[in-house]
Write a structure and sequence with these properties.
Blueprint lengths: L1 E2 L10 H5 L10 E2 L3 H16 L3 E11 L4 E3 L4 E6 L3 E3 L8 E3 L1 E9 L5 E6 L10 E4 L13 E4 L4 E7 L11 E4 L5 H9 L26 H15 L2 E6 L2 E6 L7 E10 L2 H12 L11 H9 L4 E2 L1 E2 L9 E6 L12 E3 L3 H12 L6 E5 L3 E2 L1 H6 L1 H4 L8 H6 L15
Parallel strand pairs: 1-2, 10-12
Antiparallel strand pairs: 3-4, 3-16, 5-15, 6-7, 8-9, 8-11, 8-14, 10-13, 11-12, 16-17, 18-22, 19-20, 19-21
Helix pairs in contact: 5-6
Amino acid sequence: LKLSSGINAEWPLRPGRKMGGSYDWDRACFTMDPKMCKAVTEAFIRLHDKGLIFRSNRLINWSCTLKSCISDIEVDKVEIKGRTMFKVPGYTDPVEVGIIEEFQYCVVGSNDRITVATTRLETMLGDTAVAVHPEDDRYKHLHGKYVYHPFRKCEIPIVADSFVDKDFGTGAVKITPAHDFNDYDVGVRNKLPFVECINDNGLITDVVPIFAGMRRFDARVAVRRALEELGFYVTLKPHDMVVPVCQRSKDIVEPLLKPQWFVNCKDMAKRAISKVEEGDLKIIPKTFEKTWYSWLDDCRDWCISRQLWWGHRIPAYKVTVKGVPTDDLDGRSWVSAHSEEEARTKAAARFNVDPSSLSLSQDPDVLDTWFSSGIFPFSVFGWPDESVDLRAFYPGSLLETGHDILFF
């Protein structure tokens, strides 16, 4: 039995005791108990040393209300049918969603204009390209040309990318690599710059001074008006869509570019799939095998960093050697350890320097609670230390879980 609240470690047990629950009460433990912390730290270190945990600057799901990254499973996909007023935390008036807006970019060196459509008009402030399908005859003459960004006063390229659905909308797509997961991939493939136009608080950055400091959905209206004044705004239409909403805060999730810790899940997902296919692992009822495969077939690397005040602090230390510049995303600049002293020793050996020449700072973020939950079946028995209980009860033969967290 795992407890996740330390305010009063006894009260979560009371209902179970009163109902006569036949749990193994002697093994009830709290997430932040010393033995659990030891296991979590050891698991992180082992995975990090093997390269399965790594640091990368990628798009993550961000809650502007919680001021934290959240996992995919914490994002509710809310279906919107047409024009809808949606309540967002921090806004007095509801925000309009379920719309798609069209506006135009001027093609540099000609009188041509190219029309693009978006459900998030405010993100055009961070556009770094317009993408068209390479086989779309309407735009072949524009391959390699540029359009002019009316607010940033710069040229951005027109790129040919097969990601574009040439039969949807105008067949031309604005690309904002720093604020959209699909656009991120397009940006990587085409080596585009990543311009961040929304910050952690959901405010517009100073990338375009006249909008700087505006709340993102207020900026949506302001950008619309500014485009209308310039003669580049085309139309607004109702549009069925899915809005990503944070389960806890009910805020609309904002994709943001951040340096975070990730777990490489590809090989683990393949092994989990094969175990079910080969019959070594049985999911009951069998109908939920579809859910298992659906999540694991398209499994992304798992972001385990959280910007919360409570949890297991990430046991990773950034190393700075005196007089040597460091890169936050350089894997060699980070070591994981049970203590700062151990980290200093590991870093000194890695850089072949005297420990006194090193400066270390531990990452202030904490781990996603699922990281500790994932190792609970053996950490509860004292892992990584050998014990009679561990040998007797692990691995187990039956796990009861909820269908909504099956793939965890």
